[in-house]
Amino acid sequence: MLKNDTILKTLRGEKTPYTPVWIMRQAGRYLPEYRETRKNAGSFLDLCKNKDFATEVTLQPLDRYPLLDAAILFSDILTIPDAMGLGLYFADGEGPKFERPLTNEKEVHKLDVPDVEQDLAYVFDAVKSIKQALNERVPLLGFAGSPWTLATYMIEGQGGTDFLNIKKMLYARPDLLHHILKITAESVSQYLSFQIKAGADAVMIFDSWGGALADNEYEPFSLNYMKVIINNLNIMGHESTPKILFTKGGGQWLDKQLQSGADALGLDWQTNIKQAKAIVKDQVTLQGNMDPSILLSDTKAIEKNVKSIIDDYGHGERHIFNLGHGITQFTPPDNVTCMLETLRSHSPQYHL
Amino acid sequence: MLKNDTILKTLRGEKTPYTPVWIMRQAGRYLPEYRETRKNAGSFLDLCKNKDFATEVTLQPLDRYPLLDAAILFSDILTIPDAMGLGLYFADGEGPKFERPLTNEKEVHKLDVPDVEQDLAYVFDAVKSIKQALNERVPLLGFAGSPWTLATYMIEGQGGTDFLNIKKMLYARPDLLHHILKITAESVSQYLSFQIKAGADAVMIFDSWGGALADNEYEPFSLNYMKVIINNLNIMGHESTPKILFTKGGGQWLDKQLQSGADALGLDWQTNIKQAKAIVKDQVTLQGNMDPSILLSDTKAIEKNVKSIIDDYGHGERHIFNLGHGITQFTPPDNVTCMLETLRSHSPQYHL
């Protein structure tokens, strides 16, 4: 039914005429049309929670860039801890924060799986609305944060810290942290299942802070809970829905990620895609991995770097082009056009 | 002449009875005696610039922990850009900043190598004073920031950002960035040479932000300039002075670092030391790599993790124990004792 299902084919390792692409945070502040809608919607959370606004901004990059091969649900990874009652808010000019982070054992034991279907209905409504508005143009990607990444916010109260509170818990009270991760993994499983039932064609798990873990701790405290989610989804009847796993800063653990059951692994720009391909072979699809800051420079640098990634991946059907992290708000929109056009003209030679 | 030269032996790959250790930021805020001296000295920069205070705090961890095998100069990596005239300052509760970052081409072309011997005399005076106070107890390590890392502060005006300004320059005007890096590499070479002449027994180059570079750019924009410094030092007559190179977040580039001419490579906690050893063999010494947050937990976790690193490295003479980054200010000092004692009791079996 989809008019363009290139990305789904690539996720399954099937032959396509070119390398498909989407962009992390493709609906966002770098687009003037997004800033306009945001002005009308109010806060970022207001935008996420209103299905009409969420639909509008999700479709904006697709209207501007016909070469994009997927839409991604406009939402936030922190909707789940918010539904758990931790009180998500965005302070002006700062990242997301929680009013009631988990600071003691009592609070940890009180944590429970929310009523996902009801408390997060606004997300599933947005998925349905977007799916309808897309009218089968391209697939819609759903997403969630990884349990470890969600737990960092739930315990630290914010992101991008040194993670000292959660790490202290990890080493001194691993039982408490496992309790949090277990509840969160169950919540994420239900959350993604409802997204799929509402129309998401594939789902991605963002492990934004997995790279902060020590080598010995990545598997027990992050990867294993992502495996739980993938297994749950398979058991819940979503075996054929492709699943993408992305640990930012986790390029050194690709061999472990390969055993997760994910159909695709995201790569950041610190990872060499040629070396990554040598590790994963054609067992999974790789997604990435241009440094978002290249889009701040000029067409010469953009063309060179897009071609370099395409050439490094070389022949093969298991590569989805993307950035290695979200597009920055300072990106001139025309530079994205340059990236997409270079990709579309340079990649077909590897799909003959 | 040194009473304890274990670390120097390990840097040369010679046999020692145990695995030696020092701790990044071992003279620092986690020690009550440091906080006391700091109160008397004034600001952090006042402390760095007064050789008596710098000597006092450098020796504090050695007095408290007799199992430490090295002293490290108390100073800051940003003394060089400060000497270049960029105006280093520390805003309350924030990291270091520069009053006059490099924001345009004209400022970049005006940048020049400072009169290192004169403008940074306070550092070399501190080295001499510390060396005398140490009275040959343990070796003294000197250090500097890598050109790439210094350039991030010089261009962004501060650390820990998304590095969008320097990355934009890297991709759009690599000529300007290479100009900055060349001047900085020459400055660092002279700086480390004067530290060695003043008494430093080994030197370390801190590439704190090298891990932010894309895979293709790490070598041309960071590693190559560290190689320039190592080559310069060798030419300047410091071939026998051991050189340690540490790129935080650079564990995936160990094979490249191995070709740098460094005697030792630092590892962060995301890197598996067993795998790292398999790459570097006994060609260089490895330094690291316990997650500093483990020191916030308890003796059980500390003992387990120290032993795990020692067991992972296994037999061999080329390992200096350390954390994977600086010790945090929240570390209970007794936990350091536990780490050091576990190391000293557990490591000799691998040095028989």
List its salient traits:
homodimer, 352 residues, alpha/beta, two-stranded antiparallel sheet, 16 helices
Question: In words, what does this structure look like?
Answer:
The structure is a homodimer of 352-residue chains. The first copy, chain A, has 352 residues and is α/β, with parallel strands linked by helices. The first copy, chain A, has 16 helices and nine strands. In chain A, strands 1-4-5-6-7-8-9 form a seven-stranded parallel β-sheet, with helices on both faces. In chain A, a hairpin with a 5-residue loop joins strand 2 and strand 3. In chain A, helix 2 (32-41) runs antiparallel to helix 4 (51-64), helix 9 crosses helix 11 and helix 10 crosses helix 11 (174-198). The longest helix of chain A has 25 residues, at 174-198. The two termini of chain A are 25 Å apart. The mean pLDDT of chain A is 97. Chains A and B meet through helix 10 and helix 15 of A and helix 10, helix 12 and helix 15 of B.
Biggest interface goes to:
A-B, 35 and 35 residues
What order do the SSEs of chain A take from the amino end to the carboxyl end, as H and E? HHHHEHEEHHHEHHHEHEHEHEHEH
Query: Sheet bearing the most strands of chain A, described?
Result: 7 strands, parallel
- Strand composition percent of chain A: 5-15%
Class from secondary-structure proportions of chain A: alpha/beta
End-to-end gap of chain A: 25 Å
Q: Count of DSSP E strands of chain A?
A: 9
Oligomer: homodimer
- Put simply, the count of helices of chain A is 16
What portion of residues of chain A is helical?
Answer: 40-55%
Q: Indicate the overall shape of chain A.
A: globular
Quick check: average pLDDT of chain A? 97
Low-confidence stretches of chain A: none
Radius of gyration of chain A: 19 Å
Please give the order of strands in the largest beta sheet of chain A: 1-4-5-6-7-8-9
